[in-house]
Write a structure and sequence with these properties.
157 residues
Length: 157
């Protein structure tokens, strides 16, 4: 998290959303998975097929497969980090709907729907994923569960 991004945050929800997203990169093993030869044994295949498909959000295969290999893989991992990060922030007591406002403002400030680099998906796509993860969290809570990624995978089967 840069000082510039921190200065843009309006409240703790936004800071938690960004920090949880960054922590999610570590949870998902994204540094190792940026290597084109890395096995895809980690979370992404389950995330894409089971969770996003079941939530009604278009699976991210287009984000993963479009463009150059490293760039496409980076965009897909960003979306995965948005999903996992939403679970981290929500389980920590933060409101990710409010926290995701930092994405919307970033797009309005720059006049673009993407971040500065093409390694990130569109901001509207990122908001879609955060809101879908949030819906899954609320579904789990309504069922009397403590929100977990594994419950989301099981519900998709």
């Amino acid at each position: 998290m840069t000082a510039s991004l921190l200065a843009q945050a309006r409240d703790d929800n936004e800071i938690a959303t960004v920090l949880s997203h960054e922590a999610a990169h570590h949870v998902g093993g994204h540094i190792a998975r940026m290597d084109a030869n890395a096995p895809s044994h980690a979370f992404f295949p389950k995330f894409q097929a089971a969770i996003l498909g079941a939530s009604g959000v278009e699976p991210v295969i287009g984000d993963y497969g479009a463009g150059s290999g490293a760039r496409a893989r980076g965009r897909a991992l960003e979306l995965e980090a948005d999903w996992i990060g939403t679970f981290i922030a929500e389980r920590s007591g933060y409101d990710t709907a409010k926290g995701a406002g930092i994405y919307a403002r970033s797009g309005a400030k720059t006049g673009r729907s993407t971040l500065v680099t093409s390694s990130h998906p569109s901001l509207s796509r990122r908001l879609e994923v955060v809101l879908a993860a949030r819906s899954e969290i609320h579904r789990q809570r309504a069922a009397g569960l403590t929100p977990r990624l594994t419950y989301a995978e099981a519900a998709a089967r």
